[in-house]
Design a protein that fits this description.
- This protein is an all-alpha fold.
- Helix content is about 80%, strand content about 0%.
- About 55% of the residues are buried.
Amino acid sequence: MTHPDPAPRPASATPTRSMIVAGLSTVVEWYDFTLYLYLATVLSRVFFGGGESALLATLAGFAVSYLMRPLGALCFGHLGDRFGRRYMLLASMALMTAAMLATALLPTFDSIGASAGVLLLLLRCVMAFSVGGEYTGVVAYLLETAPPRRRGLVTSLASAASEVGALLAVALSALTVALLSTAQLDGWGWRIPFFVGALLAGVILLARSTMHESPEFERQQAEGTVPTSPIRDTWRFHRAAVARTFAISALGSITYYVGITYVPAFLGSAGGVSESQALWLSTVAAVAVIAVTPLAGALSDKVGRRPVLIGLALLSALLPLTMFGLMAEGTVVQVAMAAVVLACLAGGVSAVAAPATAEQFPGEGRLSGLALGVTMATAFFGGATPLLAELLVRHTGWAAAPGAMIAVVAALVLPVLWGLRETRPTT
């Protein structure tokens, strides 16, 4: 009796190790993002000489460098569409590793004066440029290597890993500040978290060197369909997809940056919560995001991206007003509940937005499409929205104003989601 030859492995059956390496990569991006914000007061003394204007300069540098992210996304998106996802992911992580190591080795204000601040801001721009295409590159790689019926779950891991990076940065920052005196912290202690970040990035860079290329890009190479001008072609032939991606990402950005990133500052100013309590609640919220993200991704695999996104948009239009009201006037338990609800909303949207946006584009030009849609939406609805939320609260006296911001964006995005074509693979 003869047995038939085993079926060849499908192109999508990329080794699980490659998917795990790609999924964990966003840890570094959000480690750096969170680290800079949590050490902002320390960095203001070390690089700008201290004082209120120094802190403003430190935070302004963060905001300005954020504008480099769309440029980086377009550049690395072009590389990924032209030369391969693996090549692009290696290049971005190599630049991130160099930028973090250079930051850890920077001379301080006491050594070279105002030039120290200039060098820090330049390195922030390099870092922002390098991470610009990081998240979208990882999402595209995971989508193209995951089993078709598990794309939602697998791509959602990029969002979950981001929160792991944020938690790591919070823990290391708190430990460093707690164990060292102010003089030790300003003298050399601030360098420790950046050295750890550089080491983490270097380890992931080495791990990425063992990754397989995306089977989607290999298909394009075999068929001769690799685009020569992916950004131009995407803008020319897929403008509607870019617009849909922008809308989905706008909801993801506003729920995350106002519903999670801004919450500690809100609790400290309007919520009557101590700084330590606010940080503790933020940690609980981050854990909630890590827990809910794969659940939302898996749900989108089962029932579809469109219904899950519509449901999350409806909840985003209805709940944030009440949640911010509770955080302003409620008990500690109510504040914690409200923060977790907002975190779960943001985590759910991010989880489903990952596959939903990537599936709007064909493999040819996918990274460029994500750069045009996702990263541009993040630039508009991400970096500046916490500042806008704080200004609204201060000038109107309405504690629920940040919730209104989320509700308005959700209401505007809802018609787009209602008309969205379902992209979940059924086979």
